[in-house]
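User: I'm putting together notes for a lab meeting next week and I want to include a structural view of one of the chains we've been expressing. I don't have a solved structure, so I'd like a prediction I can at least talk through. The sequence is below, exactly as it appears in our construct file.
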Amino acid sequence: GVAFAQSDTVAAGKKAEPVSYVPKLDGTIKAKMEVDLNGGEYRFSVRNARLGVRGNVSPKMNYRLQMDFGNEGKISLLDAYAGYQSGGFTAELGQQQYHFSTDLDRGPSTNMFANRSFLAKYLTSYYGSEVSDGKAVDFVRTLGSRDLGAMFTYSFRAGVPMKVYAGLFNGAGSNNPEWGKKVNVIGRLEAGGEEGLRAAVAYYDGFAPLHTKVKEENGELKSEEFEQKMRMVGAELRYVKGGFFVEGEYARRYLGVGAAREVMTTALIHGYYKIDLPENSFADHLAPILRWDVGNDVDYLNTDARRREVFDANRITVGLNVGFGEKLIRSEIRFNYEKYLPSRKPSDFARNKLLHDKFTIEVVAAF
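Assistant: Thanks for the context. Below is the predicted structure for the 367-residue chain, given as structure tokens.
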């Protein structure tokens, strides 16, 4: 969360520093060129054009607002919340990330690869159906990493730094203030600091956003509201030392469909090594980077039949991030090669570039 107000330091014998009320702007531009290595096609795109502001309105209350003006051609409100902080405790109310997964939370200024992992892209998907042109067609949607609700955190030391998250959310997704009698809950525990070893476990319980499914009555197709139970469990392990970074995540999503249950499994391990270049070089640093990720029973929409299907695949991404500033990700050109190893291909594989091998050149500029 965003917490710029200074924590109490008087008890430690230090004089508390004055709180600044000057808003702080931040933003990210991500532009890329992709080449589909299966068909030879290419495209240029602006994946993100984000602008945000954060700051304090009193010593213990802060705020965050963030928009994306280039999310695949749509303007969207991302973050809009106010927060309270006192010592190690924070409370935030509004639209925000619910912090189930580190990789799911990563945005354009924190994601190390040109394309998101299977976990970040597909884990929170759910599906239904609707009537279109007189016939039933499916859809696959995603809850994403944000929702409307309240998040409470508490940071403390128990030999190592610890942080506990507890959240209550609508479960309807971003910009969707639905009324309901149920609430989605999230719990997360982290152990470890920014350097060295850090572990985390998380649990999410609730319902997918209210949507529709089609059923036939007396030879006529009718849409009815559909509620799907959604649960997720996840575990993470990370190690950071100097310029070396390695992280692994494992997560499962369970959808309740009547008496049946749909299970999706995603996992990843990725890492990089930052190599600082001599002064006056063409760049500040190089970061060779590698990711292996896997998705089993992943929901997707068949683009030909407009029916929901699932795929199983492994993917290996290798790349080089060329950095022009001291901080990783802030000022980079990236070269990524993605090799897909599907064990259950989509039936529209030839037309759908979902699991096609790709080469990507991406520019990231963040402030």
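A couple of points you could mention at the meeting. The CA atoms of residues 137 and 305 lie 8 Å apart. The chain has two helices and 21 strands.

User: Perfect, that's what I needed.
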